[in-house]
Design brief:
This protein is α/β, with parallel strands linked by helices. It folds into two domains: 96 residues, Spore Coat Polysaccharide Biosynthesis Protein SpsA, Chain A (Alpha-Beta Complex), CATH 3.90.550.10; 125 residues, no CATH class. The chain contains nine helices and eleven strands. Strands 1, 2, 3, 4, 5, 6, 7, 8 and 11 form a nine-stranded mixed β-sheet that branches. The chain has a two-stranded antiparallel ribbon with strand order 9-10. Helix 7 packs antiparallel against helix 8.
Length: 303
């Protein structure tokens, strides 16, 4: 039998939560929803489907998830991270049921293939499928990076294996929601960039090739050591062209064109513009403490 707990963060996710919970029902022995005081029916729906709901005030995605890991009464041998707008497909559910109980003792994590559905279309090109992410790990062996954006699960020791079947990010909200969400993401990512540039944050757990999927660690290295050092207009345009032409993003049709332009060009340009804006306000401040306080005021983040 599989002994696996699923941990999901929520805030006003009544549109997605039932779908997520139903997709993990075939294999989850425990489900914990860490809710940030939703004002819709998220909590009611989650409890009606058997989830244990814990409420906690939001600071960041990483810290909310780590709070769940540290405080949920998890007894299962394995833990899975799932976002409320993600769906586990039946093929992956079967693979988890079939493979997880028989994994060798030195395997402490499972990497999964994530796909993305946008405007009803599976985005297969532009480097967007598959995204390899560590999403299942043995209890006590995984923690989440303390970052404002693009945080990953890092496995302490042992090795990971890759399952074949995918799961999907399929948000049902409209483009206004998508652009507003990415505007917030851009602020958080700009804070991360400047935090590393000026040493504003305590360095914590981070990705390595040994503790995370090679795909994720290589992408992080390129982003931190190459992309973020280029002038942002050049970097954003170059990344989009590489993704849309070099990685065949144009094969994703009209929906893919919208997605790749917004997520692969507009968003990257916005992050760079916010880094420029915030940096102008903090670069001449004499101390790390003053820089951090000014960046907190500019971003609205509790840095």
């Amino acid at each position: 039998m599989v002994s696996l707990a699923v941990l999901i963060l929520t805030f006003n996710e009544e549109r997605h939560i039932a779908r997520a919970l139903e997709s993990v029902a075939p294999f989850a022995s425990e489900v914990f929803v860490i809710d940030c005081f939703s004002t819709d029916r998220t909590v009611e729906i989650a409890r009606s489907l058997g989830a244990v709901v814990l409420s906690h005030a939001w600071v960041s995605h990483a810290r909310q998830f780590q709070w769940g890991l540290d405080n949920a009464p998890i007894t299962a041998d394995w833990i899975m991270r799932l976002d409320a707008d993600e769906v586990v497909e039946p093929d992956l559910a079967d693979e988890i049921l079939g493979k997880l109980p028989g994994l060798a003792a030195d395997i402490t994590g499972v990497d999964l293939r994530r796909g993305h559905i946008f405007l009803g279309r599976w985005i297969r090109h532009g480097g967007r499928y598959p995204l390899i992410l560590t999403r299942i790990w043995r209890r006590g062996q995984g923690r989440i990076e303390d970052r404002w954006m693009d945080e990953h699960i890092v496995v302490r020791q042992g090795r990971t294996v890759l399952f074949d079947a995918p799961f999907f990010d399929h948000n049902l909200n409209d483009l206004s929601f998508f652009t507003a969400k990415h505007n917030g993401y851009a602020t958080r990512e700009a804070a991360d960039v400047l935090g590393r540039r000026y040493g504003l944050f305590r360095e914590g757990l981070d990705l390595s090739r040994e503790a995370s999927p090679r795909h994720a660690s290589v992408k992080r290295f390129i982003k931190d050591h190459m992309y973020n050092r280029l002038p942002f207009p050049v970097a954003a345009l170059g990344y989009f062209l590489f993704r849309y032409i070099g990685q065949l993003g144009f094969l994703d049709g009209r929906e893919g064109m919208v997605y790749h332009v917004l997520q692969g060009c507009w968003y990257r340009f916005l992050v760079g513009a916010k880094v420029l804006e915030f940096d102008r306000s903090i670069r001449l401040l004499p101390t790390v403490e003053e820089k951090r306080a000014a960046l907190a005021r500019l971003t609205g983040l509790p840095l």
